[in-house]
Amino acid sequence: MTPVSSHSPHGQSSLRTVQVLGGGNAGSSAHVRSLAAGLVARGVKVTVCAPVEAERTYDFAGTGADHVHVPRSSDPGSLAALRAACADADLVHAHGLHASFRTVLALGGRRTPLVVTWHDRAHADGARAHLLRLLERRVMRAATVVLGATSELVDRARRTGARDARLAAVALPGRSRRPVEPEDPDRLRPKARAELGAIGRPLLIAVGSLERHRGYDVLLDAARAWRRLDPVPLVVVAGEGSLRADLQRRIEGERLPVVLVGRRDDVTDLLAAADLALLPSRRESRSVLAQEALHARVPLVASDVGGIPELVGDAAELVPPGDPEALAEAVVRLLDDPERRELLKDRGVRQAGTWPTEDETVAQVLSVYDELTQPRLLI
């Protein structure tokens, strides 16, 4: 018998959904905003539960969604606020491990369908690592459907006990399938390069939080080798984090050609000025920098780790994680090989064309919602 839906087709859905976001990294927060905008445009009622700081940055209410302040905490007050927000929902969608765990606690034994999007794995050492694994198992087993941003995450969700885990690649917000190229990139680059101090020398860009898993210690090790080049490349790192002071001490003490420029909101402009993009991470899922670089036709050198190979295909130079010699050599080879750089640019455009658009991402998620909320009439 054909399922009978209480909802109209996508454009006329009366579905009531709650999106739950914790502290949220930039990628998951931007995804929730994109998803909220797309769902509201299709007639879905959306409530976003997120800290007020995330609302200030991402303006979920500006999409037409309701925003409910829920702190990134599992204290009784936060759980009560989350429970109240989910009370009338047809479906709840949580993003990230911590937000998903709080949602599981808030829903209790309620039969409301729970969708979990797993954007990236959380990591920790010692006793906290054991706790994270327990949280993973609790969330994976409680979720009705787990959507993994990479095949690696989908496989792990299944191993951890997910009843239904599916690949649901997250689109890069604000990007169409066709990259937009400036009419004359050579005319637009000099100002940005001058501001960064990269006139007459190669400019290498890395973007991401200054935390251990980003592999910036490996990047600084590699930068020692680049001091021997003529001209010496300038490495610009955009981001903030707990390792800033340590990294700065190394840069100054070893006189490395590296500049920490802090958190930037003009990453697209930085990439447009760059000769190469660098991603030396020890772990990555669906890297925003990798996507931005390929869209911007900037050759990428990245760690062969996590979801990176699946994401970039043959459109980047991949090196073993934690290997500064391999990173240094790959960069030197590319700087000396303009034909290879042009090949990677062309491959990057082709690879970016295989990634889902925001509309396709929303459509896939909505199809999951419909599947989980349509009543079935058996005769």
From TrEMBL:
**Classification via CDD domains:** GT4_PimA-like
UniProt keyword Heme, yes or no: no
Q: Which residues form a coiled coil?
A: none
Any single GO molecular-function term of the entry would be: glycosyltransferase activity
Q: Which SUPFAM superfamilies match?
A: UDP-Glycosyltransferase/glycogen phosphorylase
What keywords sit in the KW lines? Answer: Glycosyltransferase, Transferase
Report the residue ranges that make up the Glycosyltransferase subfamily 4-like N-terminal domain in this protein.
Answer: 27-171
**InterPro entries, alphabetized:** Glyco_trans_4-like_N
The question of whether Disulfide bond is a record keyword is answered with: no
Matching PANTHER family: D-INOSITOL 3-PHOSPHATE GLYCOSYLTRANSFERASE, GLYCOSYLTRANSFERASE
User: What name goes with this protein?
Assistant: D-inositol 3-phosphate glycosyltransferase
